[in-house]
Amino acid sequence: MDNKVKLQYKIIVLRKKHIVMPNNKHAMEKNLKLHWNKTYEKTEIEKLGWYEDSPEPSLRLINKCKLDKNASILNVGAGVTMLVDKLIEQGYNNIIVNDLSSIALDKLKMRIGNNNSNSIRWIVDDLSNSTKLNKLENIDLWHDRAVLHFFYTEKEQMAYFKLLKSVVKLNGFVIISTFSLNSATKCSGLPVHRFNKEMLQIKLGNRFILLETFNHIYTMPSGDKREYVYTLFKRTQ
Ligand SMILES: C[S@@+](CC[C@H](N)C(=O)[O-])C[C@H]1O[C@@H](n2cnc3c(N)ncnc32)[C@H](O)[C@@H]1O
């Protein structure tokens, strides 16, 4: 086995056994960071298995929120998404871009250029063990496409939703798009936890109401298809 395969195997075994003990938690985080950094280092943006030329389903839901242009939009696990370019084009000027991978954010920064640096804050942080994102508050919109499903264990999911609930303001919005129950069981070589809208509602609790949901078939650059469930929630309490 070469080192990369060994590393991926180790990550899968650790996650499947739900081993999240303090000692190896740090090692696991480092491995996942390495996994994502390597993925972004070695893959051309347009060849990533989640690349979208134009993230239409997300834009449709964002437009539905009717946000002010200075609303705070937190794009979690953003990778190198074109969504940031589109939000800038639409005049949004308070965008926060997060990812575990600094390489992804560096690539995105390079593409977007310095002209828009006043409109964007960049935060490299782990959504399941946050040390920076947890300092945020009053977020108007939390946007997640294809990130939550990587939180395979109950513990990681709890950390994700705890963070979300602590930063999204009253009357703020949450867009989560994740592999649906019909989708693949792996993405980027990692096992995924699939959701439907009811499961997301349970995780968010009754302080959030579901405004809109739809399934979307995404075609990967390879031609393979993946089904995503898109949801738009509003925090009402
Ligand atoms: C499948 S990609 C989706 C990227 C982007 N949202 C999009 O739609 O193009 C998943 C992203 O989640 C990021 N990610 C994975 N685990 C993370 C974590 N614990 N904290 C923050 N980001 C994470 C990865 O680095 C990767 O960029």
Fold and architecture overview:
- The protein is of the alpha/beta class.
- The chain has one domain: 3-Layer(aba) Sandwich (Rossmann fold).
- The chain has seven helices and nine strands, in the order αααβαβαββαβββαββ.
- The strands form two sheets. A seven-stranded mixed sheet has the order 3-2-1-4-5-9-8. Strands 6-7 form a two-stranded antiparallel sheet.
- β6 (186-187) and β7 form a beta hairpin.
- α1 packs across α2 and α2 (22-42) packs parallel to α5 (102-112).
- The chain starts with a helix and ends with a strand.
- It binds S-adenosylmethionine.
- S-adenosylmethionine is lined by residues 36, 50, 77-79, 81, 98-101, 104, 126-128, 145-147, 150, 187-188.
Main features:
binds S-adenosylmethionine, single chain, 237 residues, 36% helix, Rossmann fold, 9 strands, globular, alpha/beta, two-stranded antiparallel ribbon
Sketch the topology as an H/E string, one letter per element. HHHEHEHEEHEEEHEE
Ligands bound here?
A: S-adenosylmethionine
Q: Give the overall form.
A: globular
Structural class: alpha/beta
> Briefly, what CATH class?
Alpha Beta
| DSSP E strands, number | 9
> What is the count of DSSP helices, taking H or I runs of 4+ residues?
7
How big a fraction of the residues is strand?
25-35%
Low-confidence stretches: 16-23
Radius of gyration: 17 Å
Task: Report the CATH topology name.
Answer: Rossmann fold
